[in-house]
């Protein structure tokens, strides 16, 4: 089962609508050409959230990636990064 969501973040990164850690404990942040993609997996199921880079509005993309990884880890996900 795969579920895809699109998230438009505006001026500030806010994490909303994340899948439950109990069902999707693994989170991989992938940088694509014009977006960041959060891929969550666990127990044979996957879901993803896309973050268009234009929503960062001139912010440092690398800093946003590091913040996302740290925030997800703090919330209990096992995190990884792919280019």
Walk me through the structure.
The protein is of the alpha/beta class. It has one domain: Signal recognition particle alu RNA binding heterodimer, srp9/1. It has a 5-stranded mixed beta sheet, with helices on one face.
Instruction: Assign the structural class, choosing from mainly alpha, mainly beta, alpha/beta, alpha+beta, or little secondary structure.
Output: alpha/beta
Radius of gyration: 12 Å
Find the CATH topology. Signal recognition particle alu RNA binding heterodimer, srp9/1
CATH class call? Alpha Beta
Strand residues, percent: 35-45%
Per DSSP E runs of 2 or more residues, the count of β-strands stands at 5
Distance between the amino and carboxyl termini: 24 Å
How many DSSP H or I helices?
1
CATH architectural arrangement? 2-Layer Sandwich
The figure for the number of domains is 1
Considering DSSP H and I runs of 4 or more, what fraction of the residues is helical? 10-25%
**Form type:** globular
Write out the strand line-up for the largest beta sheet, numbering strands in chain order.
1-4-3-2-5
Main sheet specs: 5 strands, mixed
Can you tell me the residue ranges where pLDDT is under 50 for at least 5 consecutive residues? 6-11
Order of helices and strands: EEEEHE
Average of per-residue pLDDT values? 84
């Amino acid at each position: 089962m795969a579920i895809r969501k699109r998230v438009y973040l505006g001026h500030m990164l806010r994490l909303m609508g994340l899948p439950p850690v109990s069902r999707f404990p693994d989170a991989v942040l992938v940088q694509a050409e014009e977006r960041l993609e959060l891929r969550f997996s666990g127990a044979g199921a996957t879901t993803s959230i896309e973050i268009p880079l234009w929503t960062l509005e001139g912010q440092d993309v690398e800093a946003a990636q590091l913040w996302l990884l740290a925030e997800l880890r703090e919330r209990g996900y096992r995190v990884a990064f792919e280019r």
